[in-house]
Structure prediction request, 118 residues.
Amino acid sequence: MDEAGREAREAVRRLGRRGPTSRVPVAVREKVLWYAERERRRGTSWRRIAATVGLSSTALQRWAAARPPARRRLAPVTVTEPASAAPAEAGVTLVTPTGYRLEGLGLEAALGVLRHLS
Prediction:
C-alpha cells in the first residue's frame, strides 16, 4: 500500500466505530475517492480498494457514481463552413431538453410548436 492508501485508510480509521449507515464527512470522502479513482485507473478492483481503506466496495462505487465529472479545460475550436451547406429555407433543427426534436420548420413555426408543447 502506498502513501495515498495509508492516508485514506487513516482518515477512515479516525472516524471511529460507525454503523453501516453512518455518514462520512466530505473531506474524508474526497480523500478516499481520490485514492480509489487513481487505483481504478491502474486496474485495481473495487473489493481490493475497499479492503485497503476499510469501507465497503458498494459505498465506494456509489460515491464514485454520484461524483460529478472532473472539470475539463476548454479546447480551442475552429468553425468552418460545411462542404455542402443546406439551403437557408430548410429551416431549423431543434431538440428540446425534454427530448422533442423539431426539423425543417421555419423559426416562427418552430416557436409556435414549442408554445403549444409547453
Observations:
- The two ends are 56 Å apart (CA to CA).
- Residues 3-66 form one domain.
- The chain has a mean pLDDT of 83.
